[in-house]
Amino acid sequence: IHKSFTGPSQSLIETTVIDGCNKKKTDYGRVRVFGTISYVIMSVVLGLIVSESNVSFTFYLLGVTMIPCVCFLISMGSIVDDVSSGKRVSLRNLPFQKLFSNPYFIAYMIFCVIQYIPQMSVFNYQPYLIKEVGANMGYIGLLQAYRACFEIPVLLFSEKIEKRISYRNMTIIASFFYALQSLMYRYVHSFT
C-alpha cells in the first residue's frame, strides 16, 4: 500500500518540479538540492534520536512534518499547465499498443524492474546489516544522510554534467556504482 502512494506521488512531484524549472528557465539540480539538504538534516536528527525501542516515533514525526508541506501546497492553489489544458483521453483510448511496441520503452521497463528489486532489498535489509555489525539499527538515519550527501555535488553540477554525459550513460554509470556498492556490503564488518 505504501509504495502505491509514494511511488506515483514521487514521480509526479519530480515531473512537476522539472516542468516548472524548464518553464522558468531554472536549473533543476539547484532547486532539487534543497530537498536533499532537508533529507540529510532530517535523517541526521532521526539517526540521533531513534533507537530500536522507539522506532515507531518516526511514523508520527513524518505525519507531523508533512502538515506544513500540505498546508503550503494548498496555499499555492491549483496549477494549470499545458498538459491539463489539453483534450482529455479515456483510459480505454490511450495508445498502449504504440507504447508497448517501442523496444526502447520495453528495454527500459525491464531495466527498471531488474534495478528496483535489489534496490528495495538493500533498503529493507540495511538496518539488519547495521545490527549484525554491532551498531544500533536506529543509525540507518545517519547512513541515509551520509548517502544523500553524495547527491549534493551531482545536483549542483548537473547542468554541466548533462552537457558532457548523456542521460543514458548517466543511468548506466549510476547503476554500475549502485551494483559496486551492493557488492561491497560483503566486506562490511563495522558501522563505520
Summarize the model shown.
By secondary structure, the chain is mainly α. It has nine helices and no strands.
Write the H/E string, N to C. Answer: HHHHHHHHH
Give a short account of the largest sheet. Answer: none
Q: Cα distance, first to last residue?
A: 34 Å
- What's the number of helices? 9
Helix content: over 70%
Count all strands and give the number: 0
What would you note in describing this structure?
This protein is mainly α and 192 residues long. It has 9 helices and no strands. The longest helix has 30 residues. It is globular. The mean pLDDT is 83.
Protein topology:
Layout: H1 2-23, H2 28-49, H3 57-76, H4 96-100, H5 103-132, H6 140-149, H7 151-156, H8 158-164, H9 167-184
Helix pairs in contact: 2-6
Task: Name the features.
mainly alpha
